[in-house]
Amino acid sequence: MKFYRFGKETSPVMLLLPGTCCHWSVFKGTIPLLTDAFQVVAVSYDGFDETQPNAEFKNMYEECERIEHYIKEKFDGKIFAAYGCSLGGSFVGLLIQRKNIHIDHGFIGSSDLDQAGVIGAKIQSGIVCPIMEKSAKSGKLPDWMANMQRKQAAKEGKDPE
Predict the structure, then answer these.
(1) What local confidence, expressed as pLDDT, does residue 158 receive?
(2) Domain boundary at 69, 87, 109, which?
(3) Per-residue pLDDT of the chain (161 residues; tens, 9 = 90+)
(4) Structural domain containing residue 149
């Protein structure tokens, strides 16, 4: 696994996790837009980087451990945000779920929008984007969404955080 870092080392860290069978360079157009505000780290999974021809993607848990180790080693176990699309979104969820590192904000690109038609995707993103943008700026979920999470956690017998 390789990690490609861009931007100022003193800036908050934004981790970018590509999708299934995607090279880290899918973010090449996005990275310059982020480096004024963030130190960007693009992940290149084992088996997906031409500079490591013998590396092999074995499973998500081993890759997740490598990502956690990197974040602990380079950023004291805490980053500002992680964005993942498709498989990368699954990594974001897994990293948060495992609680071995801390991510202030996790963003998951939806393959559902990829599968939706043009009109359906526009409607879905028109609903979700304003909510997520407001949440990202304020650093908290809307009350109705936080209440839904508390109810779900209570239903599952978990303590909400």
Answers:
(1) 59
(2) 109
(3) 999 999 999 999 999 999 887 889 999 999 999 999 999 999 999 888 888 888 888 888 999 999 999 999 999 999 999 999 888 888 998 999 999 999 999 998 765 555 566 787 678 777 777 777 777 677 777 788 778 778 877 776 755 44
(4) 115-161
Q: How far is residue 66's CA from residue 48's CA, in Å, rounded to a whole number? A: 15
Residue pair 63/55 in contact by the 8 Å Cβ criterion: no
Tokens for 84?
């993942």
Contact 139, 146 (CB under 8 A): no
Pair 84, 109: CB distance under 8 Å: yes
Residue among 80, 100, 68 at smallest CA distance from 38: 80
To the nearest 10°, report the CA torsion of 134, 138, 144, 146: 130
**Same domain assignment for residues 64 and 135:** no
Q: Which of 24, 6, 150 is nearest to 87 (CA)?
A: 24
CA distance 156 to 134: 28
How far apart (Å, rounded) are the C-alpha atoms in residues 14 and 26? Answer: 15
For CA atoms 150, 154, 155, 156, the dihedral sign is positive
